[in-house]
Amino acid sequence: MKVFLNRRKMPVLFILVLLVTVIMVWNACFSKGAAFDFNSGLPGKNAAGSLNKHNGPVTISFWYSWVGGFQDEFYDTVVKPFEEANPDIKVQMTFIENSDNSQGSDKLLTAIAGGKAPDVAMIDRFIVGEWAAMGSIEDISAYAIREDMASIYYKSVWAESQYDGKTYALPWNMDSRAMYYNKTLMKQAGFNPDKPPTTIAGLDAMAAKMFKTSGDGAYEQVGFIPWTGQGFLYTHGWNFGGEWERSGDLTPNDPQNVKALEWVQGYAERYDVKKLSKFSEMMRQTGRNAFLSGKVGFVYEGNWLLNEMENLDFEWGVAPMPTIDGSRSVTWSGGWSFVMPKGAKNKEEAWRFMKYISGKEGSLLWASREGGKNDLMCIPEVNAKLGLDKKEPMKVFTELLGNAHIRPVTPVGGYMWDEMLRVQTLAMNLQGEPSELLNEMKKNVDTELARVMGYANSGIEDPQGPYEQP
């Protein structure tokens, strides 16, 4: 009772001061977005940004490199719905050009080095490994684990977003490769147009009957040219059962890759590379894919070509690319991703944006737009909701994605790609033996990898900078 009576006699002024003090401490603790997710050890999902010193939304910067009206289309389709669902975040989109027709931007790298990085950037997944190795993008593993992001993507594209056991990107779109074939030319050559070749030997036999020359000896129709379309040596190597990377070791001189390059060179010898090049140049001058002319029997191309396949004056079809024994179907995939550049200022808001635009909701919005009927996304559930696994001929491309190959995730991915193009060009121009060329390629990529990793491990800036694919 004594204590009670003393409290009742407390001066009113003292009580008011005490209340003001409590309010000030409370505001100090929470005015800086101090919410925290104790389970993850990361800022909470709704932390950092909903309250700031201006008491308004946080503006995050998003740099992209797609042209052709992408900004308006992407904002209206995906960004605006994100902002409406997240009123505490505004997105500022900025176009940056890729450098020298490459998949990376020097301007972005300069901004990162100068401490002025955007919060989110779009980059090709092909260079994620390179940029991660040189420390230009943030490790987002903790965020990805918190949200279980790995579970929603195709395994191959998720692997392409990893480097050294950590996550550095969220996959977005993807592509797939298959064989387009001219049913009309197959009929004329005496083949069943509903039974395209499944083996490389079968492809060779059918193609051989489709070559036609004009009076001056030039080709006016061809069966197949291995190096056109998506006929890269990477493609052929996988179709022959070869590998380009094995347990971390780069393997361009895999015996099956050698056989693939010998096969490519065989076409150059058998059908005269100069005549084939003249035909290809004539097709290029039309400004259209050569297959659309109706003068090509078979070509390896991606799902994007379907956008140009309407109103053709010949019958055509799509099938998996032939393989060495016909026992399996092969494709490989590339595509774009979203990363958090090193030094991003608004990491939690950046993550929420990345998760939305590359997750199920944002991906479905983008792929459902009017111009996206032949787009493929990195999430199987999204492609299924769009019915792409049942829609002809998109189902051919979609069904291959579960086991799609990816180009090696390595700090020298761009260099290795250029080396592949170099040796393929030499082989098709009969300027070297395939085995020797690929042994040389192996030596070169290993040397380049040692050089790059030497700088990465030393902490000294590489004077040559990152290697970017032309």
What does this protein structure show overall?
This protein is of the alpha+beta class and 470 residues long. α10 crosses α11 (255-271) and α13 crosses α14 (360-367). The model is unreliable at 1-51 (pLDDT under 50). The strands form seven sheets. Strands 4-3-5-17-8 form a five-stranded mixed sheet. A three-stranded antiparallel sheet has the order 15-10-16. The protein has helices spanning 2-8, 12-30, 70-85, 106-113, 128-133, 141-147, 155-160, 183-188, 200-208, 233-239, 255-271, 273-284, 347-358, 360-367, 380-385, 394-399, 413-428, 434-458; strands spanning 36-37, 42-43, 58-64, 89-95, 120-124, 162-163, 166-167, 170-171, 173-174, 177-182, 212-213, 219-221, 245-246, 249-250, 298-302, 316-319, 336-339, 376-377. The protein is 41% helix and 13% strand. It is globular and about 75 Å long.
Strand content: 5-15%
Largest sheet: 5 strands, mixed
Q: How much is the average pLDDT?
A: 88
Using only C-alpha atoms, the radius of gyration works out to 28 Å
What structural class do you assign from the helix and strand content? alpha+beta
Number of distinct beta strands? 18
Please work out how many helical segments DSSP would assign: 18
Structural shape: globular
The helix content, as a percent range, equals: 40-55%
Low-confidence spans: 1-51
- Termini separation comes to 86 Å
**Widest sheet: strand order?**
4-3-5-17-8
Question: What is the topological layout?
Answer:
Elements: H1 2-8, H2 12-30, E1 36-37, E2 42-43, E3 58-64, H3 70-85, E4 89-95, H4 106-113, E5 120-124, H5 128-133, H6 141-147, H7 155-160, E6 162-163, E7 166-167, E8 170-171, E9 173-174, E10 177-182, H8 183-188, H9 200-208, E11 212-213, E12 219-221, H10 233-239, E13 245-246, E14 249-250, H11 255-271, H12 273-284, E15 298-302, E16 316-319, E17 336-339, H13 347-358, H14 360-367, E18 376-377, H15 380-385, H16 394-399, H17 413-428, H18 434-458
Helix pairs in contact: 3-14, 10-11, 11-12, 13-14, 17-18
